[in-house]
Design brief:
alpha/beta; 6-stranded parallel β-sheet; 3-stranded parallel β-sheet; 9 helices
Length: 236
């Protein structure tokens, strides 16, 4: 119990668990969680990591995934709604792997020269990603919307043909916990491609509700996109 006599619950979402390394930071994590009655994490991979770090006794670690509003916000559009273009939604940071999606665009455009990739979100890599588009000659086929409100995200998901989430595990170990944006895409019945990192397998079943590709693999991303664009029945 805390000093107030209340139960203490600590929740980890990913970055604190995976990327805070070293003896001091590991000790701090162990000290903090040792004072808690319960530790909750958002994926089975994170629970395994917590156990390996001896942050808490396994019975006192609960996996409680993030949730989404699939009733009033994220839901399928009417059946006759046109779906066009490619979409990424998320912060423009390293662990999202967006540069690998942009690097896939020349191969996509070779097969589908009219495609447009819309990147929804903002972050510190914006200028770097824009420069990469210029370097690869795809700037006319990539649109950066900047930050938008959460209420506006569904209309992008409901109108796009394919959504791609090319997340990676960074060199520091930082990675996604539960990919909420992936769940939002699935709830809107948008064909979804996700890179194969640990948290993704809690949600994506290969070939059933999405496609998994290797991390940092633009060629596989492009092949998956082209496959879905060429096969609308499978995409649906």
């Amino acid at each position: 119990l805390s000093r107030t006599g209340s139960a203490l619950v600590i929740t980890s979402h990913g970055g604190d668990m995976f990327s805070l390394k070293g003896k001091l930071l590991t000790w701090l994590k162990t000290w903090a969680t040792s004072r808690a009655n319960q530790l909750t994490v958002v994926s089975s991979t994170m629970k395994a990591k917590a156990v390996s770090l001896q942050l808490k006794d396994a019975p006192r670690i609960s996996v409680i995934p993030m949730g989404i509003d699939s009733h009033t916000m994220f839901y399928p559009p009417p059946p006759d709604t046109p779906r066009r273009g490619l979409l990424f939604v998320g912060r423009l940071v390293e662990k999202k792997g967006i540069e690998h999606l942009i690097a896939a665009m020349p191969l996509v455009l070779k097969a589908h020269p009219d495609q447009l990739l819309t990147i929804v979100g903002h972050g510190p890599l914006l200028e770097t990603l824009q420069q990469l588009c210029e370097k690869l000659g795809v700037k006319d086929h990539v649109e950066f919307t900047g930050a938008i409100t959460n209420q506006d995200i569904p209309r992008y998901l409901q109108r796009s043909a394919v959504t791609v989430f090319p997340s990676i595990v960074t060199d520091s170990g930082d990675q996604e916990g539960t990919p909420v944006a992936v769940m939002e895409s699935l709830a809107c019945e948008c064909a979804t491609i996700v890179s194969d990192y640990p948290g993704a397998r809690d949600i994506i079943i290969e070939g059933e509700n999405g496609l998994l590709v290797a991390q940092k693999a633009p060629d596989q991303i492009a092949a998956a996109i082209n496959y879905l664009l060429d096969n609308p029945d499978i995409r649906r």
